[in-house]
């Protein structure tokens, strides 16, 4: 079976004033469909840069990124934006919810880019909120929800358009341990029961235990191969 994500000789260099800073050095990586991968490593190791490249939020300096057989490293900014909206669900550390909108309207946001009517958008949002255990909170605004509940709304928003895979950048970094475990358990459920492919950056070894594989980065290079738990 071919990998969902296939990365070959990936490099990324940023220009800061007169100097160039190399962040990734020739990374090779395959991620299978249905996997749950935790990316770990010290600050500055290139974890978030790699995550952003896989999610199409940034373009590499060199190398290839092939996802579902499509080279995304060759896409223009406009093509990449359209590709992201079809294929990627994003979960960030700080939720990024719209404060004036209800949970349901926040979850519906990605669907505004589709041709679905209001009734169908609402139906799909309710299904996503039910899946994350917040159907009874759909009318609440973010400031009426706990941090863990807000992150679950963010996960519902990430899955409402049934993306190919989820990109999670420190999804529990702003949560207490109990809320973090709820969110991680939900991600594990989405992976194991619903087949969602997930790539998650985390500093927390306990969070990484919820993943099927852990990949370690250091100074822009993979330092070992994925190992199953």
From TrEMBL:
Residues 5-229 form the ABC transporter domain. GO terms for molecular function: ATP binding; ATP hydrolysis activity; transmembrane transporter activity. GO terms for cellular component: plasma membrane; transmembrane transporter complex. InterPro entries: AAA+_ATPase, ABC_transporter-like_ATP-bd, ABC_transporter-like_CS, ABC_transpr_LolD-like, MacB-like_ATP-bd, P-loop_NTPase. SMART domains: AAA (SM00382). Keywords: ATP-binding, Nucleotide-binding, Transport. Belongs to the ABC transporter superfamily. Macrolide exporter (TC 3.A.1.122) family. This is ABC transporter ATP-binding protein. It comes from Denitratimonas tolerans. The lineage of its organism: Bacteria, Pseudomonadati, Pseudomonadota, Gammaproteobacteria, Lysobacterales.
């Amino acid at each position: 079976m071919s990998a969902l994500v296939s990365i070959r000789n990936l490099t990324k260099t940023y220009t800061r004033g007169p100097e160039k800073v190399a962040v990734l050095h020739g990374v090779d990586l395959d991620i299978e469909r249905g996997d749950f991968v935790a990316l770990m490593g010290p600050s500055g190791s290139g974890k978030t840069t790699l995550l952003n490249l896989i999610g199409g939020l940034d373009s590499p300096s060199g190398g290839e990124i092939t996802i579902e057989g499509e080279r995304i490293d060759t896409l223009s900014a406009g093509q990449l934006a359209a590709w992201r909206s079809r294929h990627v669900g994003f979960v960030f550390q700080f939720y990024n919810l719209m404060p004036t909108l209800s949970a349901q309207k926040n979850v519906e946001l990605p669907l505004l880019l589709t041709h679905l009517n209001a009734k169908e958008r609402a139906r799909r949002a309710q299904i996503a909120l039910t899946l994350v255990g917040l159907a009874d909170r759909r009318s609440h605004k973010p400031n009426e929800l706990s941090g863990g509940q807000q992150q679950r709304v963010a996960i519902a928003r990430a899955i409402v358009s049934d993306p190919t895979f989820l990109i999670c950048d420190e999804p529990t970094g702003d949560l207490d341990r109990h809320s973090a475990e709820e969110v991680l358990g939900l991600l594990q459920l989405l992976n194991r029961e619903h087949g969602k492919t997930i790539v998650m950056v985390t500093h927390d070894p306990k969070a990484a235990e919820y993943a099927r594989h852990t990949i370690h980065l250091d100074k822009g290079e993979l330092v070992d191969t994925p190992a199953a738990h």
